[in-house]
Amino acid sequence: MGSPFSRLPYERPFIGLFQFLAGFTVARIIQKPDDKISLRSKILWDEAERRGIKMFEIRLFGLPRDFYFAEFEGKMRTFNGLPRPKGPDSWSLRWMDNKSVMKKQFQKVGIPVAKGRACFAEPTALKVLHEVGAPVIVKPHIGSRSRHTFIHIMDDKGLLKAFRSAKQISFLAMVEQELQGFVFRITLINKKVVAVIRREPPRVMGDGVRTIRELALIENQNPLRQGPTFHHIELGSEADEELKRQKFTWQSVPKKGEWVVLNQKVGRGSGAVTVDVTHSVHPDNLVLFEKIGKFLDDNLVGIDFIIEDIAKPWIEQMPCGVIECNSLPFIDLHYFPFSGEVQLVAGNIWDIVFPGSRNSMG
Known about the structure:
Elements: H1 11-22, E1 27-30, H2 39-50, E2 54-60, E3 63-72, E4 75-80, H3 99-108, E5 116-119, H4 122-132, E6 136-140, E7 150-153, H5 156-166, E8 173-177, E9 182-189, E10 192-200, E11 203-205, H6 212-219, H7 237-245, E12 259-261, E13 273-276, H8 283-296, E14 300-307, E15 321-326, H9 345-353
Antiparallel strand pairs: 1-2, 2-3, 3-4, 5-8, 6-7, 6-8, 9-10, 9-14, 10-13, 11-12, 14-15
Helix pairs in contact: 4-5
């Protein structure tokens, strides 16, 4: 959710307070990015420096808090994570990160979402499974970055196991229809689509000759998979289960051009990759995404949308839909795609926060 730190009415006196606290070692003012800040913050900071924007971080008790000040031509912004333009917070900033509330709000205006709802108790979760129909997905109520998320759930036993795991990190768990396709991350700045990536699960393509294990071992030698951004495809028990679901073994030889998924998770730590598709989005899909931006009425939004082919109209690919929104999107996803073009999203953000800063670039 949006931080109250971004809504300070008197920013200059507040920074004076931090300077006072710094004298007692309660707070520190960091004037250059270091290895403790997130990659998202470093990208934003680097772009600020190119534009002549003074940016620095406030750390309380020596710990990074993602609290920042930025100043340009006498104007100042305080923010947590990413900056927004001066003015009151949008009405949606209170709820867009909450999957359950987001789903209800979107359903009111005809924005496609997966069927299902948040559940507290196991009987309710089982009821949703029977109402929606298998397969379903279970995940923590608040964004978990793929942790404790389970897909392809077909029966009560699998549902209960997944539900109990999701509840370990969330008061509620989402049980909802499993949409078909890839997860796409759409980033909107000032209610306009500026970048889109396709998040691909760990997978290998058959050549008609090599086994799946051989293909995976070869793919893990890819220089792009040696870190720090992309990692080896994990070849453990989750991959075993995914192969079993597809009626493969590690010794199977897939056909030439046939994709074999080794894990349904789309986190980079499990071996997933990202592909920039910004310039391949169908116009009808752009209209839908920007409709979402206008409905949220917020200047900075990340949308996760499941659809098979982003280059074809969404209405022809039902069921598809939004699975979550993010008020502090990871803009670094657009700077380090596994393939495709880099999209300089930080520049779009500073354009709306300090509009004159683009003219200051050398």
